[in-house]
Amino acid sequence: MEQTTKKKKIVVLTGAGMSVESGLSTFRDAGGLWENYPVERVATHEGWEANPNYVNDFYNMLRVKYKDVQPCEGHRLLAEMEKDYDVTVVTQNVDVLHEAAGSTKVIHLHGEMMKMCSSRDVDNPRYHITLPHEGFGETGLEVPHDEKADDGSLLRPFIVFFGENVPNLYDAAQMAQQADVFVIIGTSLNVYPAAGLVQYAPQGVPIYLIDPKDVAAKSNVIHIKCGASEGVKRLIEELKNKG
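RESULT FIELD:
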């Protein structure tokens, strides 16, 4: 009987820098979305309670603006790595570009822009609606202000607002504990949950950081100083060389 070789497990944590090459604006950087839309109004529970219409309008605008955005080469290369490795992507991004590129194991830490949920029972999948949805504007992406979930509550964006629990953080930590290689792309080691997840990686496993900026990384972190697409190319070469 032919013996199958177990694939090396690679856990990849991605942040805003992963999707910049696809043309998506970051939230925090200069010129980012928070400059024009105050975070406390569009990404907090208090903002939602104060003016749910404003919050829904913001995410309706984002979905329509980004509906034709395509994965960058970095997204596609990560998906292709599944041929040779057992790859789990843990992303802080609310876009679905990893899935669009073909990645099959994606954990979303901060929610998904293309989903709506109950405002009373946010994490219950029974009340999730995946967009586009028939009847929601010409694009199927513009959710009406008075649209309700099946539990009778207003539909809200399936986004983890600031101050809310991160329900998928436990699953992400479990994956990190099983990693043979841990990779960070487009997010700083000084920003949580990135810094926290790194601590779950088994001692001695290689840790790669792909980011064009200078980062105060620990000595055991291999910094590939370039953008996401070029960085993933170099990562693949590095992994091949190491066997």
